[in-house]
Amino acid sequence: MGMKAAMVKTVPVAKPDKPYPGFPLFPHASGRWAKKIKGRFAYFGRWSDDPKGERALGQYLNEKDALHAGHRPQRGGESSPTVADVCGDFLDAKQALLLNGEITSRTFYDYRRAADSIVDHFGKGRLVSDLAPSDFARLREKLAKRFGPTRPGNEIQRIKGVFKHALDSQLIDRAAAYGQSFKRPAQRLMRIARQRQGPRTFEADELRQILDAADVPMRAAVLLGVNAALGQSDVAALPKTAVDFASGWLVYPRGKTGIGRRIPLWPETIEALNAAIAQRPKPKAKAKADDRLVFLFTTGRPMVEVTKNGDTVDRLGKAFPKLVDGLGLKRQGVGFYGLRHTTATIGDGAKDRTALGAIMGHIDTSMTATYRETIEDDRLRAVVEHIRAWLFGLDKKMFHRPPEGV
User: Fold this and answer.
1) Which one, of 220, 249, 247, lies nearest residue 235 by Cα?
2) Model pLDDT, residue 14
3) Angstrom distance (rounded) from CA 71 to CA 67
4) pLDDT band at 304 (very low <50, low <70, confident <90, very high)
5) Could you tell me the domains of the chain?
6) Strands (E), 184-303
7) I need a surface site. Which of 174, 184, 321, 402 has the fewest CB within 10 A?
8) Cα(310)–Cα(42) distance, rounded to whole angstroms?
9) pTM
């Protein structure tokens, strides 16, 4: 099912049939005659005013040469596309990026949620040209209630991205009128909120409790989270070929940024990964390609995946809080990604932010980073050694290096 079809589920009662077989247009669920040309819907007036499609057919015949050539024809008094039109077109474009591996399932889920927020608030049949700053102000109030007063910033940026896509794709001919209030919360408010929430990290004793209580695959996933700063999607997509078990290195780009990473793994992490692979269930018969993955859920499905209708199923993200809650360690807003926060916080104590950033997969926009080709292995080892010593209370180094000159 295309994303536009998924966005528009209600069929109007008065939907007409095609006037005759071979009629080139069809009645779109938005209430207009339409035709999909070069992967995009073109519209030719409302069927309530033209039930036999006579005017719509005439308009199509006048415009078809331009449309099939990929151009947008000029229309006098052209009506604005609906909210469903722009959201559907946006999700179609993002789904193509997802299928090509250019964005992660988590990113697509965030885009889908933003589009759903737009449709739920404005209504799928609302004309985009009819949206006013007061409409966006009310949407922001709703987002603040849903995410809290300081957290809707990213959602607002994604929503603006939907309308920017519509403008760039020439679905609309002018930018949406957001007004002055539809913007990110002030940085001051965000800092205050973070201070009230407390740190989004785990203490060493908490992590040891989690590791002791975790089953085999969860133990490996948690160790990857704190040793290598992997999030749920990174863990779920980890191929066995990314782990060099002999040398103890993980070579694996971060899915969110595409930044390449070389991360030395702890002996505990290597041992846990071997055990997880040995106990891993077989993939579903229709998904043999999943056999390349380190982790599979008990059902034989990936830990995180996108369903056919575009929804994201995060099995790891659901299982981890259950483990933490069972140990009495639950804290609001701290989930599996809290392991990554812990890596960044404790790893900073190694006093090598460049090496830590390389392990985290952060984007470095400095001029030095433009010319830096590699980071010495010893610097990367020093960061993960520092975190391991903090976690397990160890003094000795995990890596034994030969004396210089040998």
Assistant:
1) 220
2) 63
3) 5
4) confident
5) 3-9+16-68 (no CATH), 83-197 (1.10.150), 204-392 (1.10.443.10)
6) 243-244, 249-251, 262-264
7) 402
8) 24
9) 0.62
Sheet of strand 26-27: strand arrangement:
26-27, 32-37, 40-46
Torsion of Cα atoms, 330 then 333 then 335 then 338, to 10°: -110
How far, in Å, CA of 36 to CA of 45, rounded? 14
* Whole-number Å distance between alpha carbons of 80 and 128: 6
Rounded CA gap, 336 and 253, in Å?
19
Report DSSP letters for 282-345, one per residue. Answer: PPPGGGGGGGGBS---TTSS-SEEE-TTS-EEEHHHHHHHHHHHHTT---TT-STHHHHHHHHH
Q: Helices H, strands E: what count in the chain?
A: 16, 8
Residue identified by tokens 């010593």 is: 389
Q: Give residue 129's pLDDT.
A: 85
DSSP per residue over 357-379, as a string?
HHHHT----SHHHHH-----HHH
The residue to which tokens 């229709």 are assigned: 286
- Model confidence over 111-143: pLDDT tens digits? 998 999 999 999 887 888 888 899 999 999 888
Lowest-confidence pick of 109-113, 198-202, 337-341, 397-401: 397-401
Residue 253 sits at φ, ψ, to 5 deg, of -70, 150
CA 127, CA 120: separation in Å to the nearest integer? 14
